[in-house]
């Protein structure tokens, strides 16, 4: 996590994502989250970096975990267009970490307090295992759609981009490769949770995990996610195997006289055990239910993206859009145009141009902007063309509707045109 | 038991798959190195038949123009003015065919802003001529030089040709004006010379770098070409040349004086040169030679749901050209009195932008930023 934060800073993404844009897209229900400004953002990132170190080293663990969760989640909530499934995953794990006694073995806290815990109730491990299983399983489930399985979309569009790679390059132009990747991906996602739970298949499954994530890391610009997942899946291994690795680490440290915790065979106990189990149960139920909400909306999910986020739907669609905003001053009847690229970053523009809820948010922002310039009563229509999985571009939303009259909600957006 | 069978079968399957993939990679390793990608021939052809000849042509026409400017300032008569104007229009037309190449040397030299920032600031030009103090450094002076400044100096300083000739002969500021004209011409030539030489193998050899980076990431040649072209198409082809004069970006209030080449009234012919230049670039066509371009590349990868994306884009270029044919010159006057044909051309331009921003970008798979994404 510490590496993630540093990478983010080094890439200059703080500036391009949080300081440069004049407008940020909020999550529904989180409109109160605001950009704390340049100093605030850097402060949040500093907290994130320090607390991630704190969590890793087990130094002031509980407070670090809480602060890390808050700062990380806050930053993610500032702008929807930065939404990535793996940031969401990190947030969820960070939340769970708050309740964990993960600091009481092989850590600075255990040294400070002079005792160490060697055993924790299985529930703490199980919840992470179940969360990981759900991530994979839902990701696999989402792949079971006609485009992915029968047409190898969007991989057949993406893979040829890598035809310049050495060794595997030539394969990328082959259609069967796209199918192989698609099917392998689906089978992998759906089966890996079970294979990881079952001790006899676990080592093979872990090899599969490593190979799968490394290859996705090589092919797609998905950042740290593969490494997070690879490390996370090690939680499926038995305590014995972990201890073996740890003892190697420990021997390195103790040689340097760095760490030598007093070992006692103790089971972790807390007075709030019941409360923690209930929190975990609610957490699991919510996590199980969230990805399913998409089925409550009519229409093609990949087109409308209603209930798309927070559902582990990764790498599923190739979408490219272009939005023209027609502004009409009702007083004078004059009409003109506005474009996202004048107000948003390239990334924001790309995301907004394909997602109806963001289009609506942006229209309301534009309305406000024009009102500030003295055009109090404008009508805004959005002419948005989208190509889904390389298909012929077509209108995403009804271009005859004045979107300033529409309020966002969890209800079905009737102004999205059917695919 | 059943479960066990399934899962061990699953893991076997997976291990087999993995081994298979690895093996197949190894098998094909040697073959792969010899295989050139489909993108590289496109890059080679674009560099050698479109881009470099395009700059070469612009370079030689600007040299010719510079000579004409010298002739005219030495002998400001009607004959020299006519031939100067002819050379000016030739150079302006040649510029149109490379204007959209906003990457590599042209980008680092800010060639577009240097050569074609319009509307030109005629008041500042007049002031400079009057005072004799020319300042040509910095971004803020870009609208006092380049082709639009020359457009004003050759067509706009007086209402009639006689009047214009007077400005360069009997007028009290005639010497300053001549000097201004000479400097503007010199600056353009110097800039284009720089860019042209950076492309040449005997100069900066950007050509080599251009052909080598045949991936699709942000810094790759495809990435740069597609991103710069679609951005140019939005900002300068659609907005600057027609949208802004039509009032699309000014709350519906038209600004006819903001058209390109306002003083010479050559907006439409230059616009057509520009669009056909872009179309040639798309087709990989230079002069009589028509080789691999984006068109051929898209056909090769059967781009588009209907596998006809290559043709649809080409057709859209033609549609724009035929719409422009129907716009009466001068464009500024058309916008004032009868904007419908100009609006119609704007609509077709908009459709080209949409094709570029949606299907074209998707098909070529170029990235727009370096940021991570997980494909949703």
Overall geometry of chain A comes to globular
Tally of separate helices of chain A: 17
CATH topology of the largest domain in chain B: A middle domain of Talin 1
Give the overall pLDDT of chain A as a whole number.
87
Strands in their spatial order, largest beta sheet of chain A: 2-1-3-4
Rg measurement of chain A, Å: 24 Å
Could you say which overall geometry of chain B the principal axes of the C-alpha atoms support? globular
Query: So how many helices of chain B?
Result: 17
Topology:
The complex is a heterodimer of chains A (419) and B (376).
Chain A (H helix, E strand, L loop, with lengths): L1 H9 L2 H7 L17 H21 L3 H18 L6 H15 L8 H6 L8 H22 L2 H6 L3 H4 L16 H23 L4 H18 L5 H9 L5 H17 L17 H17 L11 H4 L14 E11 L5 E4 L7 H7 L3 H17 L5 E11 L5 E2 L24
Antiparallel strand pairs in A: 1-2, 1-3, 3-4
Chain B lengths: L1 H26 L1 H6 L4 H36 L3 H19 L7 H5 L2 H6 L5 H10 L14 H10 L5 H7 L6 H26 L6 H7 L8 H23 L23 H17 L1 E2 L2 E2 L3 H7 L8 H17 L5 H7 L2 H25 L12
Antiparallel strand pairs in B: 1-2
Helix pairs in contact in B: 3-4, 3-10, 3-11, 4-8, 4-13, 7-10, 8-10, 12-17, 13-15, 14-15, 15-17
Explain what the structure shows.
The complex is a heterodimer of chains A (419) and B (376). Chain A is of the alpha+beta class and 419 residues long. Chain A folds into 2 domains: 2-293, no CATH class; 318-405, no CATH class. Helix content of chain A is 53%, strand content 7%. Chain A has a 4-stranded antiparallel sheet. In chain A, helix 7 (122-143) packs antiparallel against helix 10 (175-197) and helix 7 (122-143) runs parallel beside helix 14 (273-289). Mean pLDDT of chain A is 87; it is low at 256-263. Chain B has 376 residues and is mainly alpha-helical. Chain B has 2 domains: 39-203, Up-down Bundle (A middle domain of Talin 1), CATH 1.20.1420; 211-364, M75 peptidase, HXXE motif (A middle domain of Talin 1, Up-down Bundle), CATH 1.20.1420.20. In chain B, strand 1 (285-286) and strand 2 (289-290) form a beta hairpin. Chain B starts with a helix and ends in a 12-residue tail after the last helix. Mean pLDDT of chain B is 88; it is low at 1-36. Classes of the chains: A alpha+beta (419), B mainly alpha (376). Chain B: It holds the Pfam family Peptidase_M75. Chain B: It is found in: Cell envelope. Chain B: Its main location: other.
């Amino acid at each position: 996590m510490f590496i993630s934060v540093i990478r983010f800073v080094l890439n200059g993404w703080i500036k391009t994502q949080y300081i440069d844009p004049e407008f940020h897209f909020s999550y529904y229900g989180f409109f109160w989250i605001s950009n704390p400004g340049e100093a605030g953002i850097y402060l949040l990132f500093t907290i994130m970096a320090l607390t991630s170190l704190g969590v890793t080293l087990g130094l002031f663990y509980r407070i670090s975990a809480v602060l890390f969760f808050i700062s990380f989640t806050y930053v993610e909530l500032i702008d929807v267009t930065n939404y990535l499934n793996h940031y969401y995953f990190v947030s969820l794990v960070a939340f769970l970490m708050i309740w964990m006694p993960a600091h009481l073995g092989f850590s600075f806290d255990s040294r400070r307090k002079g005792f160490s815990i060697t055993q924790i109730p299985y529930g703490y491990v199980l919840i992470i295992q179940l969360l990981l299983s759900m991530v994979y399983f839902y990701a696999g489930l989402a792949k079971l759609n006609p485009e992915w399985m029968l047409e190898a979309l969007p991989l057949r569009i993406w893979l040829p981009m890598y035809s310049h790679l050495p060794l595997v390059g030539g394969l990328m132009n082959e259609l069967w490769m796209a199918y192989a990747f698609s099917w392998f991906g689906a089978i992998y996602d759906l089966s890996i949770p079970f294979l990881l739970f079952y001790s006899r298949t676990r080592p093979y499954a872990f090899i599969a995990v490593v190979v799968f994530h490394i290859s996705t890391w090589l092919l797609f610009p998905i950042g740290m996610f593969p490494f997070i997942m690879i490390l996370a899946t090690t939680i499926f291994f038995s305590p014995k195997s972990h201890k073996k690795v740890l003892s190697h680490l420990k021997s390195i440290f103790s040689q340097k006289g760095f760490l030598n915790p007093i070992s006692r065979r103790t089971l972790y106990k807390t007075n709030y055990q019941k409360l923690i189990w209930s929190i975990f149960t609610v957490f699991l139920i919510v996590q199980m239910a969230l990805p399913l909400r998409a089925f409550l909306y009519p229409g093609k999910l990949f087109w409308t993206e209603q209930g798309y986020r927070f559902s582990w739907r990764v790498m599923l669609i190739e979408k490219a859009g272009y939005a023209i905003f027609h502004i009409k001053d009702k007083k004078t009847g004059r009409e003109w145009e506005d474009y996202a690229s004048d107000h948003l970053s390239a990334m924001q523009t790309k995301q907004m141009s394909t997602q109806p809820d963001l289009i609506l948010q942006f229209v309301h922002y534009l309305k406000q902007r024009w009102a500030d310039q003295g055009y109090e009563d404008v009508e805004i229509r959005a002419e948005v063309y989208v190509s889904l999985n390389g298909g012929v571009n077509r209108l995403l939303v009804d271009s005859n509707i004045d979107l300033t009259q529409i309020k966002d909600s969890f209800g079905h957006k009737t102004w999205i045109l059917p695919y | 038991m059943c479960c066990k069978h399934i899962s061990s079968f699953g893991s076997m399957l997976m291990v087999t798959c993995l081994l298979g993939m690895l093996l197949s990679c190894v098998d094909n390793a040697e073959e792969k190195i010899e295989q050139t990608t489909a993108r590289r021939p496109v890059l080679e052809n674009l560099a050698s038949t479109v881009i470099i000849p395009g700059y070469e042509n612009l370079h030689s026409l600007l040299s010719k123009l510079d000579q004409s400017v010298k002739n005219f300032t030495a002998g400001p008569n009607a004959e020299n003015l006519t031939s100067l104007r002819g050379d000016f229009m030739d150079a302006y037309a040649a510029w149109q065919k490379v204007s959209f190449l906003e990457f590599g040397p042209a980008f680092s030299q800010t060639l577009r802003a240097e050569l074609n920032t319009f509307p030109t600031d005629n008041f500042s030009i007049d002031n400079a001529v009057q005072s004799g103090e020319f300042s040509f450094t910095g971004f803020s002076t870009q609208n006092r030089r380049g082709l639009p400044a020359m457009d004003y100096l050759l067509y706009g300083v007086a209402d009639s040709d006689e009047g214009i000739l007077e400005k360069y002969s009997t007028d009290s500021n005639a010497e300053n004006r001549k000097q201004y004209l000479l400097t503007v011409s010199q600056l353009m030539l110097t800039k284009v010379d720089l860019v042209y030489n950076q492309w040449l193998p005997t100069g900066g050899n950007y050509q080599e770098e251009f052909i080598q980076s045949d991936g699709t990431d942000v810094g790759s040649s495809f990435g740069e070409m597609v991103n710069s072209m679609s951005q140019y198409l939005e900002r300068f082809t659609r907005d600057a040349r027609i949208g802004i004069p039509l009032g699309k970006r000014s709350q519906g209030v038209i600004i006819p004086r903001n058209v390109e080449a306002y003083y010479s009234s050559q907006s439409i012919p230059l616009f057509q040169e520009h669009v056909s230049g872009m179309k040639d670039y798309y087709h990989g066509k230079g002069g009589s030679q028509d080789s691999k371009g984006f068109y051929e590349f898209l056909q090769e990868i059967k781009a588009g749901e209907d596998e006809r994306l290559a043709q649809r884009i080409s057709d859209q270029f033609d549609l724009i050209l035929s719409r422009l044919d129907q716009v009466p010159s001068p464009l500024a006057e058309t916008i004032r009195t009868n904007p419908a044909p100009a609006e119609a051309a704007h609509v077709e331009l908009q459709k080209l932008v949409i094709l570029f921003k949606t299907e074209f970008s998707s098909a070529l798979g170029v990235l727009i930023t370096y940021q991570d994404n997980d494909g949703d």
